[in-house]
Write a structure and sequence with these properties.
By secondary structure, this protein is of the alpha/beta class. The strands form 2 sheets. It has a 5-stranded mixed sheet with strand order 3-2-1-4-5, sandwiched between helices. It is globular. The two termini are 30 Å apart. 48% of the residues are buried. The protein binds 5'-O-[(R)-(carboxyoxy)(hydroxy)phosphoryl]adenosine and zinc ion.
C-alpha cells in the first residue's frame, strides 16, 4: 500500500451528529450521518442526550459506512477521529470507540481538530477542480465557532480573527428561536429569507476591532425590536417572518463579508474559502461568489454535504496526517476547547 492511498475510517462525534466515513486517499467511499432529532423540541443541543445518542448510533453508522463503501473492516489502514473542539460527553464517545477499534484492528490512531477538518474538506477529491492554492483565507462559520483563518499549508493555520461572543450559527439559531422557528434555525431562516425583503428592517451591527466579530448585539436588538412590535401587534412575527429572516440574514452576511474583504486586502490574498455549517447559507454563498466578479477573488465553497458536520472532512485530515505518520497514542484525551 502506498501511504497516499491508505484506507481511513473516520469518526465524527463533536456535537449532535454521529458520522462515519471511509476514504481511500483523497476519495470519499462513503459518508454516513445520523442526525439527532431528539434535540429539536428543546430548541438547542442537550449535551447529555447528545452523548447518549452517539452511543446508540455509532456502531450502526460505522457498519453502514463500511457497507456503503464495499469495504471490509480488515482493509482499514488507520482510524481518524475528532479530538475536539466540541461537547466533552459527545467527543468521548467517538474517542473511546476509535481507540477500542484501533486496538482491536491493530491499526494507527489519528486525532483530528474539527475546525481544521472543516477547512481541509476543500481537499476532498471532486470538491473543486483544483483545491485552493496556499496561502488562502478561510472563513469558518459554524454553530460553535466563527473564525477567519490564514491557511499557509495543510497544517500551518493561523486564526487571525474570531467572534468575541456568539458564533454566526449560534446567532442564526437563537434569532430563529425568537422568530418561533425550530432548532437548528439557520437553514429555516435561510429558506424564509429567500421569499423576504432584506431592506425591510435594519438591525444593529457591532463595531469590533481587527478581523473579530460580535453577534450577541444583533440578537439583543432583534429581541427588543420584537418585544416592542408584538406589544403593538401580537401577530407581528407571523405577518413579517420572511422579511425578518431576510433582514437578519443580510445583516450577518454583510458583517462577515466586510471583515473578509478587509483581511483579503490587508494580506493581499485573493484565494478565499468558506467552511462550516453556516457556509451552507445561500445568502453567504451568493455574497462570496459576487466577489469573484467585483474583487476578482478566487472563491471556494464546499458542497452543502461537506459544510455541515460530517466524517469525510475528518477522513481527509486523517489522510494528510497518515502521509506524515502523525499518529497518536491511546492516552490522548478529547479536548472541548482544542486549539490549533
Ligand atoms: O458546522 P456545523 O454543522 O456544526 C458545528 O460544528 O457547529 O454548523 C451548524 C450550524 C448551526 O448553527 C446551523 O443553524 C448552521 O450551521 N447552518 C446554517 C445553514 N445550514 C446550517 N445557517 C444558516 N444558513 C444555513 N443554510
Ligand atoms: Zn462543525
Amino acid at each position: 500500500m502506498n501511504n497516499s492511498d491508505a484506507c481511513i475510517l473516520a469518526i465524527e462525534s463533536s456535537c449532535d451528529d454521529t458520522s462515519a466515513a471511509l476514504l481511500k486517499g483523497h476519495r470519499v467511499l462513503s459518508n454516513v450521518i445520523a442526525n439527532q432529532l431528539v434535540h429539536q423540541k428543546y430548541g438547542g443541543v442537550i449535551p447529555e442526550l447528545a452523548s447518549r445518542s452517539h452511543q446508540k448510533n455509532i456502531l450502526p453508522v460505522v457498519e453502514t459506512a463500511l457497507k456503503d463503501a464495499h469495504t471490509d473492516i480488515s482493509e482499514v489502514d488507520a482510524i481518524a477521529y475528532t479530538q475536539g473542539p466540541g461537547l466533552p460527553g459527545s467527543l468521548i464517545v467517538g474517542s473511546a470507540f476509535s481507540k477500542s477499534l484501533s486496538m482491536a484492528l491493530n491499526v494507527p490512531l489519528i486525532e483530528v481538530n474539527h475546525m481544521q477538518a472543516h477547512i481541509l474538506a476543500h481537499f476532498i477529491e471532486g470538491v473543486h477542480q483544483e483545491p485552493p492554492a496556499f496561502p488562502f483565507i478561510c472563513l469558518t462559520v459554524s454553530g460553535g465557532h466563527t473564525q477567519m483563518v490564514l491557511v499557509k499549508s495543510h497544517f500551518d493555520m493561523k486564526i487571525i480573527g474570531s467572534t468575541i461572543d456568539d458564533a454566526a450559527g449560534e446567532a442564526f439559531d437563537k434569532i430563529a428561536k425568537l422568530l418561533g422557528l425550530d432548532y437548528p434555525g439557520g437553514p429555516l431562516v435561510d429558506k424564509l429569507a429567500q421569499e423576504g425583503d432584506a431592506s425591510r428592517f435594519e438591525f444593529s451591527k457591532a463595531k469590533v476591532d481587527g478581523y473579530n466579530y460580535s453577534f450577541s448585539g444583533l440578537k439583543t436588538s432583534v429581541l427588543y425590536f420584537l418585544k416592542k412590535s408584538i406589544e403593538e401587534d401580537h401577530l407581528f412575527v407571523e405577518k413579517n417572518r420572511s422579511d425578518l429572516c431576510a433582514s437578519v440574514q443580510a445583516n450577518i452576511v454583510e458583517v462577515l463579508m466586510q471583515k473578509l474583504e478587509k483581511a483579503s486586502f490587508d494580506h493581499d490574498i485573493d484565494n478565499i474559502a468558506m467552511a462550516g455549517g453556516v457556509s451552507a447559507n445561500s445568502g453567504l454563498r451568493k455574497a462570496l461568489l459576487q466577489r469573484q466578479e467585483t474583487l476578482n477573488w478566487k472563491t471556494y465553497v464546499p458542497p452543502i454535504a461537506y459544510c455541515t458536520d460530517n466524517a469525510a472532512m475528518i477522513g481527509i485530515t486523517g489522510h494528510f496526517k497518515f502521509i506524515e505518520a502523525s499518529f497518536s497514542g491511546l492516552g490522548s484525551i478529547p479536548s472541548a476547547r482544542l486549539k490549533f
